[in-house]
Design brief:
Two copies of one chain form a homodimer. Chain A has eleven helices and twelve strands. The first copy, chain A, has 374 residues and is an alpha/beta fold. The longest helix of chain A is centred in the C-terminal third of the chain and has 17 residues. The radius of gyration of chain A is 20 Å and the shape is globular. At the A-B interface, helix 3, helix 4, helix 5, helix 6 and helix 7 of A face helix 3, helix 4, helix 5, helix 6 and helix 7 of B.
């Protein structure tokens, strides 16, 4: 069995938006399905902050379920029998793409804080370089989820004419102050961990408590109060699940957070987390529209778009999806706006597969019927 | 000039709900106005987690503005020309009342984690002891804000027949899992600070970063995303307001959080914070109703109640105020339910004085006209 992950070497040097450049950098990616001879059935997925390129299992090479397993595969909403699907690990991440945890070719040691400032525009440029290298001039559809939705907007702003249709999932045209405040606090939790050492942590001295705090705060804002009322209510832990530390965990919701934190802590590079988190704060469509989000969106020309959001999302509130929908429509696209009431909050796109499948599958199905891919 | 703060010595020993007892304990309080000869114009205010008993200035003794200055005074919504108003610092707090920072008479050293487990029922019992000591059998009105709203429910459950009318402000009949998760993370931030030392911190080794993190998370959940969109948007700090640390503050909302954290850090005892925070998680009206909040509320008998909440509150969501209103009404009270749309979130009761004044002043005015206090 082989790993399904492949690597695309970026042009070297690869210039970064905010200054500096990368040498010998790459992005990791996976693909599903076949590119048709016309090369017009390609779908690119840009991910949220932490996922890898492994969006779904690869029967031959990697049967491990992917982070969007329910959405992607033959006969599923993103039908790999029809589309050639590419998922790329964001530049700056640590799942195969070059990021702060990668060795700096100049020193042989991990970049850490020596990595140049990262923006979502750089993430988009790296993804675009990959798409070009696959011989694809124009994507049939660009899908972006969460942070990846912002990267997708950057992609369409930087590379006009390279995307036919777009699916925007639980994202925003810019970070609002509530989201900035949450992410700032997550970064602070990591930076205040004595093991952070300004990025000079090691496996032995690892900012575990900071990462756990950051992840818990993430999970709190990725889900919704409504979901938790039904799921956890005020259920207590059994006595054998408790420890006898003062102020130890007592409610089920507290052990749920701890469980999520421990699953994350050693599986995501702390510096990479900080870089991608800050890139999310920085991104702003308004920079492309003389200070106006709507004018920025007006520069994106698509045939069609599907914009999905969920009313329980506190990190990327529904009004921001509506703004994207209105902006793309004003720019000339035929836009479908789907406002879901899934109780799971921002993470609904990963959990409420039924409703997201219906919206995304329906949109891609209509797209296929009006294109040569149909 | 004298301090307006007075002290009420609690019966010694003072038994605590969850076990243990306090000796030589007291609660700090302030009063405004005059108790009438019938002793039926008393209004008691129970506070949120951090305020002192200094709800408003005292022209003679303490002209410093109080935490509810706009609400309380001659001619204001809580009209001290008409009502005898008492505000008590919660048992377990550090603003004059006995708490974990107070000396344990057995050792002469601060209790810290040797303080017995604290519940909001203990806070209510201490407040009731004070009210009795003032010669008041029955409060004309009991007002509780935020955590104090839960303490007020405890008061009415523990001491039936001692309250005529009630004003419930931005509170809940029990903590929901989202609120528990937030408070758990705040407590964890303090406990993980190396200077926490299981409560053996000192002025030199003080859990400053943990307290700052906890406060920032508090401020994020006390306000609302909507307010911040208007107030901070994506405004950057001026270059002279920035430091050159990696990942330093850059947006105005980040310096706002820092400012609030620094105003709080050395002004609230960390152990006291943990005790009151956990007491808020523990409180549950359903314990008085065989597992049902509505049955618990059914045990509270009032002539009238005003229940106020705000749609932007994510910590004590409006549905919980509605539940209180419905429960008190089902129990026989004449209930007014006021759902505000103030943008300030949970803290609206401290900020949107116009709307809260109108509701509270109107209610108390009608109360006065139908009682001997009128």
């Amino acid at each position: 069995m082989q790993d399904a992950r492949r690597y695309h070497a970026l042009p070297s040097p690869f210039p970064m938006k905010r200054g500096g450049q990368l040498r010998e950098a790459c992005v990791a990616y996976e693909t599903w399905g076949e590119l048709n001879p016309q090369r017009d059935n390609a779908v690119l997925i840009l991910t949220g902050l932490s996922p890898s390129a492994h969006a779904a299992s690869q029967p031959q090479d990697d049967p491990t379920p992917g982070w969007w397993e329910g959405m992607l595969g033959p006969g599923k909403a993103i039908d790999t029998a029809r589309w050639y699907v590419i998922c790329v690990n964001s530049l700056g991440s640590d799942k195969g793409s070059t990021g702060p945890a990668s060795p700096d070719p100049a020193t042989g040691r991990p970049y850490r804080l020596g990595f140049p400032e990262l923006s979502l525009e750089d993430v988009a440029s790296a993804a675009h370089s990959l798409v070009q290298s696959l011989g694809i001039d124009r994507l049939a559809c660009l899908i972006g989820c969460s942070m990846g939705g912002m990267s997708a907007l950057a992609y369409m702003l930087l590379f006009p004419g390279t995307v036919d249709a777009h699916i925007s999932v639980d994202t925003a045209p810019q970070a609002q102050p509530f989201a900035i405040a949450i992410r700032s606090l997550q970064r602070e939790a990591i930076r205040l961990d004595p093991n952070w050492r300004d990025g000079q942590y090691s496996d032995e001295h690892y900012p575990e408590t900071g990462m756990a705090m950051a992840r818990k705060l993430g999970v709190i804002t990725y889900r919704s109060a409504m979901e938790w009322n039904g799921r956890f209510a005020r259920i207590r832990l059994d006595s054998e699940e408790r420890d006898d530390q003062p102020f130890a965990r007592e409610f089920r919701v507290e052990s749920y957070l701890e469980h999520h934190a421990q699953r994350f802590v050693r599986r995501f590079d702390p510096a990479s987390y900080l870089y991608l988190s800050r890139a999310s704060d920085w991104f702003d469509v308004a920079e492309y529209g003389e200070g106006s989000v709507m004018q920025g969106l007006a520069r994106i020309h698509l045939s069609r778009a599907l914009v999905i959001g969920v009313s329980t999302d506190i990190l990327f509130p529904l009004e921001q999806q509506q703004q994207i929908a209105e902006g793309l429509q004003a720019a000339g696209a035929e836009v479908e706006f789907v406002a879901l009431d899934s109780p799971q909050g921002h993470d609904a796109f990963l959990v409420d597969i039924d409703n997201y499948s219906a919206a995304i599958g329906g949109f891609l199905g209509r797209l296929a019927r009006t294109s040569s891919a149909g």
